[in-house]
Amino acid sequence: MSRPIQVTVFFFHTLEKITGRKRLRIKAQKGQKVADLLKHLYQIHPELQRHDQALLIAVNESYVRRSIALQDGDEVALLPPVSGG
Q: How far is residue 36's CA from residue 17's CA, in Å, rounded to a whole number?
């Protein structure tokens, strides 16, 4: 069994309004992927899932794919699409 890790998730713009918070610390298993983290977040805040297709995800300030494995202490930023001019 893998040892637990802790990651911090940051919510921006609309996602912050949905969750009611700017950040959330989450315990996960070492090797857990971003996709697994999203699934967990959607269980806590189902309304987040409606943004899934357009969601931008960064880990430690670099945009990533959902297949990347999380490491202890990672900072995950979830950004909804932003429009404007």
A: 22
Q: Which of 60, 80, 65 has the alpha carbon at shortest distance from 9?
A: 60
Q: Name all contacts of 49-55 with Cβ < 8 Å and 24+ positions apart.
A: 51/14, 51/15, 51/80, 51/81, 54/80, 54/81, 55/79, 55/80
Catalogue all structural domains in the chain, each as residue range(s) with its CATH number: 4-79 (3.10.20.30)
pTM above 0.85, yes or no: yes
* 72-85 per-position pLDDT tens digit: 999 999 998 775 55
